[in-house]
Write a structure and sequence with these properties.
Elements lengths: L23 H5 L1 H11 L2 E5 L5 E5 L2 H8 L4 E2 L22 H7 L9 H12 L2 H6 L1 H16 L3 E3 H6 L1 H11 L6 H11 L6 H27 L5 H9 L7 H15 L1 H16 L1 H9 L4 H12 L8 E3 L3 E3 L2 E3 L4 E4 L1 H4 L34 H18 L4 E2 L21 E3 L1
Parallel strand pairs: 2-8
Antiparallel strand pairs: 1-2, 3-5, 4-10, 5-8, 6-7, 9-10
Bound molecules: protoporphyrin IX containing FE (HEM).
The site of protoporphyrin IX containing FE has 26 residues, from helix 13, helix 14 and helix 18.
């Protein structure tokens, strides 16, 4: 999700509650700082390193208000033109990195957002995802086969990291051997801040990714399959088609939005279970609780910390606070999901929780389109691990666990387990 959010660390300047996402200590117990933020400065203005003012929204109801208000926009271009391509009609062409970062739905507002999203949803259907169930189960089993005999592994590197990238590569119809290549390109391309130093490597990766996809498109046009890219290309022939650049950006978004997020849902979810042995046993003895358990994993310690940036298209009042035209807004999903005003005993991990309407997948027009796939992968992964490796626990010989010092993804650096 760093695709187009600004660099937001450190979050400390001029704030009432100090938040520094660069500081590993913050990530040890973020819930305590978020609690303080909700109680003392629920709509708090901070100034980024480059002087840009951004409001942090930490309470559930305020988050909903912001996310459903169409006056908070994603693209400054929306104020000027209704066309996706702000360079259209001008002589200079968009750079490859600009295409990948700006031409997809998450960087756009209606009406373009609507067109891009409807297009993707026509191919990325619930039916397609349900049909993936047996294959996701098979990949999960194969990954467990590989680690089982060793009796220990790194839960992220050896398991949680692998499953989502194999699934999305297969869904798109990309050779699974290419996943390292895809990983390297996306690692470079989600670099948050473009500097003179990294600009060239970002452009080179974007160019290589677009060339790669254009070759895949040529092959699929000749030889269509049952995959998502073939479905997109078939749809492209229909009347309201996407431009080739919009197709590249859409596929790029599906790869990056769906990967690290799902990896960390599975691993944070397993971490929550191992940290709460009673809940772990409850799930082992009642596997049918898996659906409510996955929802609680998403709420309690979900993988996405903040929303992507929105901009106020005009002066807007939120809960009596004026956000001025042009200022930025970030919703802290993790905090909204722990809001005591919305969830009973909100800091408790309870896999039987009812009415668990959390914001882990966002809210409003940008609500995650990959939510059914992420839920399915997590459900199969956790259930199968508990069936096949029922004695899984933290590795007692390993160093203490460290959380990543990120302002976007909530996740562990390493997660050694034994079973
Ligand atoms: C949007 C979370 C998995 C594709 C979002 C947003 C969130 C989110 C919070 C909204 C961001 C905002 O409003 O600023 C998650 C989580 C996931 C996950 C927690 C896994 C646990 C996936 C997967 C895919 C995907 C597997 C696809 C393969 C997308 C897309 C959008 C999106 C395309 C943009 C929707 C739009 O702009 O209309 N996701 N996501 N996500 N997600 Fe996910």
């Amino acid at each position: 999700f760093a695709v187009e959010s600004k660099k937001t660390c450190p979050f400390s300047t001029k704030s009432h509650v100090l938040i520094n996402f660069d500081d590993p200590a913050f990530h040890e117990n973020p819930e305590l700082i978020f609690q303080k933020l909700r109680n003392t400065a629920p709509i708090q203005k901070i100034i980024l390193d480059d002087g840009f003012p951004v409001w942090l929204i930490s309470k559930f109801n305020d988050a909903i208000e912001v996310l459903r208000d169409h006056r908070f926009i994603k693209s400054p271009n929306s104020l000027r033109t209704s066309d996706t391509d702000p360079l259209k009609g001008k002589t200079n062409r968009a750079s490859p990195a600009y295409i990948l970062r700006r031409f997809h739905m998450l960087a756009n507002d209606p009406p373009n957002h609507t067109r891009l999203r409807i297009f993707a949803q026509k191919a990325f259907t619930p039916k397609l995802i349900t049909a993936m169930r047996p294959r996701i189960q098979q990949i999960t089993n194969e990954l467990i086969d590989k680690i089982q005999t060793d009796k220990k592994c790194d839960f992220i590197d050896d398991f949680a990291y692998q499953l989502p990238i194999i699934v999305i590569a297969e869904l798109l119809g990309l050779p699974v051997e290419d996943r390292e290549k895809l990983r390297n390109w996306s690692d470079v391309l989600i670099e948050v801040q473009v500097t003179e130093k990294n600009k060239q490597s970002i452009e080179e990766s974007a160019d290589a990714f677009i060339n790669y996809l254009s070759n895949v498109f040529a092959l699929r046009r000749k030889n269509p399959g049952n995959d998502l890219i073939s479905a997109f290309l078939r749809l492209e022939l229909a009347e309201d088609h996407l431009t080739e650049n919009e197709l590249y950006a859409t596929i790029f978004l599906l790869i990056i939005a769906g990967h690290e997020t799902t990896v960390n849902l599975i691993s944070n979810g397993m971490h929550s279970l191992l940290s709460h042995p009673k809940q772990l046993n409850l799930l082992k003895n009642n596997p049918d609780l898996i659906h409510s358990a996955v929802e609680e994993m998403l709420r309690y310690n979900g993988p996405v910390i903040n929303s992507t940036m929105r901009l106020a298209a005009e002066d807007i009042l939120i809960n009596g606070i004026k956000i001025k035209k042009g200022e930025g807004v970030l919703v802290i999903f993790l905090s909204a999901n722990q809001d005591e005003a919305k969830f009973d005993d909100s800091l408790r991990f309870d896999i039987t929780r009812q009415n668990n309407k959390h914001l882990a997948f966002g809210y409003g027009i940008h609500f995650c389109i990959g939510a059914p796939l992420a839920r399915l992968e997590c459900e199969i992964a956790i259930k199968t691990i508990l069936e096949r490796l029922p004695n899984i626990k933290f590795n007692p010989d390993a160093d203490s666990l460290e959380w990543r010092a990120s302002n976007i993804i909530r996740g562990l650096k390493k997660f050694p387990v034994v079973f």
